[in-house]
Amino acid sequence: MKRLATLDASWLAVESENTPMHVGNLQIFSLPEGAPETFLQDLVTHMKSEREVEKPWCYKLAFPGNLGRVVAPAWKIDNDIDLDYHVRHSALPRPGGERELGILVSRLHSNHLDFNRPLWECHIIEGLENNRFALYTKMHHSLIDGISGMRLMQRVLSTDPNDTDMAPPWAVRPEQRRASKTDNEASVHAAWSQAREALRLQTDIAPRLWDAMSRLVSSARHPEDGLMAPFTGPVSPLNHRVTPQRRFATQHYQLSRLRRLAKLSHASLNDIVLYLCGTALRRFLLDQHQLPDTPLTAGIPVNIRPADDQGTGTQISFMIASLATNEGDPLQRLAAIKESTRRAKEHLQKLPKKALTQYTMMLMSPYILQLMSGLGGRMRPVFNVTISNVPGPNHTLYYQGAKLEAMYPVSLIAHGGALNITCLSYDGSLNFGFTGCRDTLPSMQRLAVYNGEALDELEELLTPPADEPRAASKEEAAEA
Prior knowledge:
Radius of gyration: 24 Å
Strand content: 15-25%
Number of strands: 15
Helix content: 25-40%
CATH architecture of the largest domain: 2-Layer Sandwich
CATH superfamily of the largest domain: Nonribosomal peptide synthetase, condensation domain
CATH class of the largest domain: Alpha Beta
Order of helices and strands: EHEHEEHEHEEHHEHHEEHHEEEEEHH
Number of domains: 2
Mean pLDDT: 83
Largest sheet: 6 strands, mixed
CATH topology of the largest domain: Chloramphenicol Acetyltransferase
Low-confidence stretches: 177-203, 304-315, 470-480
Number of helices: 12
């Protein structure tokens, strides 16, 4: 058996009827040119014929009773997986547009995983207009995080459109980091070295963790300093109790468009993402006459997985930044977001990388305790909304000759956090996935529309009119 890491186990601990803790990925493909009518049926048959199921797809809870809430939850290998249960074939009603796809994915994402089986499902969805189909895959967050999930799904796909003998996702094992020679040495000298290093690390980490938490406490007392701390965001409609039913909406942009605005405003791409989300949320809450006077805050996952580590499990830290939703002027709002993320990055960078896991648990423990104690959605939130930006492949990919057109993340929500916004880059585009509670946030789909309108507005503000005369340079002025 394999014991779960503390952060992975926490996602099992907060699982409830209203808060399923699985994450998903929606991939949209175009059928290959000249594909037979039986292409998708053949695809499903081919996928189910692969009986070898690799890690983490073959893991199931060793103690599934009471949703795996035991002192030491662990995974065990399931050697008899029923692929007819895990792999499902669906069809959209006509006209098979984005609306029909969103309704189906919302319903599929609302359903719980079976804790007596490996915690994943794969749905092949046909009937999407313009000769397309979709693949929706979901897996419990205790098994995978956004970065490792993206890397795992990327290894399933091919850059060659002529590659038509490809394995299904569950038959592809994630690459592990190459262990150094000393990793496998079992000697007294090696054991003493590792013990001394662990002691030295703890001695070094403790004061730095104390300094980091002291800075957060100070910032909570003095918000004018600009560093956002837990519990400094207001109570808003995003932070009430949630029900089991989900809604899902998407937005799609060319990365070049966003990078141009980042360059014009001397901001990062993530700053532009936060600006679009903050502006959309400001308008959404203004529509409901429920915009707080103080700015909403975003909890932003930060990847701390080594670049050569292709393993699964959760390896993230967190930073908290202002969305400046109280600022009416768009450019001032962007400036406030830039300053807030700058301070948050500085705060995180003062910690050694080996301390980030401990820091994350300290930072996230109030959030986890809120959920486990039933206080989530009944008190001030740790932060108002989770906003993630996951890097994906930057080239065109295929599966069984079908071209991957777009890829959208479908995330989780919980009591006190009725909205999650996750972005995923792919082949020159950035794809937004909005996951929200159907009952807590009615008409949540408007956020995707407002997000697009915020981008149009920012372009108008930052881009000089085409017919505006170009200012002469000093050299040109001298020549004149």
